[in-house]
Amino acid sequence: MQNNMTPTASAERIHILDILRGFAIFGILAVNIGGFATPQFFPGYSIPAMPWYDNLAHNLMLFFAEGKFYSIFSFLFGLGFAVQLNRAQAKGRDINSFYPRRLWILFGFGILHALLFWLGDILRLYALLGFVLLAFRNHTSRTLLVWTGIFFALSFFMLILMGGPNGGNEPVPGIDLVSMAQQAYGGTSYLNILIFQGLIILPSFIIIALIQGFSVMALFLLGMLAGRSHFFEQLNENRHRLKRAFVTGLLIGIPGNALLIWAANPLWTSLGFTLGAPALAVTYIAALSLASLTQTGQKILAPLASVGRMALTNYFLQSVLCSILFSGYGAGLYEKIGAAGLWGITFLIYLAQIPFSMWWLSKFQFGPLEWVWRSLTYKQRQPFIRAENPTGNLL
């Protein structure tokens, strides 16, 4: 049977989703860069005393970035699934004819990403939970809402069991992972980094899945609900809802993230993270959506869409650049840059990605990894050189 499912054409794209994805790429880097620069994500690591400006920069990252941007990506992943499901149904196709293959390819990208560059890779979790999302496709919206609440509750209780969002930091008996990380990333051998990451790629993924899995699944379902309702295709009609979402997100997100930073009890920090991170993510989504409805906002936000259309490529590119900057085989900045300096590097990398993405998409229809992903998903080589009407990336 001929496969008539093709990547989303630019005329069919929902522009605000590219903008949101491009914005989220910045926040992902703002959080992840600390893991490239220090062994802070390894059990047994103690944050050293910092000057006031680094302490302020670290708290700003926790308050405004930690958990917010993977929440946006998770929401968009679920929304994108709903859009693809709608398109498949409109063409009389079964989404099972291509979507599982798409997920396995994403999982393969995630394994390569984690092994070669970044143990904190989120793609593997998205790919595996994508199969769970697939199982929810025929459920009613009411059922999806119920399960969203269940997954958020499970996320809350899992965080408590792990000692809060900042818990799970006790040293592993008999293994000094912090010293191992310092030797691997601070050394000059990339081979030693590969060996180290290969040894702990599975246990590190299990920790990521335990900490983030339930919240990611909840956000997948919320995104799926938004996709079903065509909310982002009707932004003008939903302007008042966006304003309410913006205010509600602030009212929940500000106290929630204050708890995350200043509360000592794991119960309160877990509650703050469970509610505060997605709430501020909603505020960001609403703010950018409202801004995109104005001419000035459209001009300012347009460059972010190019970054978003190449989100997978830019995600990998950030890891490549950070690996070269901080590891000993590159610039050797491991444990030499404070939190304030990391914000500066984050801005520099992202500001470089904007013109790079715009230039690339002026020449090609897809980012390089997006092109590979789509070609393998549809089992046919996709057009790559930019045509008169370029196609964008799939949601």
Task: Write the H/E string, N to C.
Answer: HHHHHHHHHHHHHH
Number of DSSP strand runs: 0
Provide the residue-averaged pLDDT: 93
Helix content: 55-70%
Given the helix and strand composition, which structural class is it? mainly alpha
- Report, as a whole number of angstroms, the end-to-end distance: 25 Å
**Roughly what fraction of the amino acids lie in strands?**
under 5%
Shape: globular
Overview of this protein structure:
The chain is built from 14 helices and no strands. It has 395 residues and is mainly alpha-helical. It has one domain (10-377). Helix 1 packs across helix 11 (295-309), helix 1 (15-37) runs parallel beside helix 12 (311-326) and helix 4 (99-116) runs antiparallel to helix 14. Mean pLDDT is 93; it is low at 389-395.
Can you give keywords for this protein?
mainly alpha, single chain, 395 residues, globular
Describe the structure in brief.
The chain is an all-alpha fold and 395 residues long. 70% of the residues lie in helices and 0% in strands.
Layout of helices and strands:
Layout: H1 15-37, H2 52-64, H3 68-90, H4 99-116, H5 123-135, H6 141-161, H7 177-186, H8 190-228, H9 239-262, H10 266-291, H11 295-309, H12 311-326, H13 339-363, H14 368-377
Helix pairs in contact: 1-3, 1-11, 1-12, 1-13, 2-9, 2-13, 3-5, 3-8, 3-10, 4-5, 4-8, 4-14, 5-8, 6-8, 6-10, 7-8, 9-10, 11-13
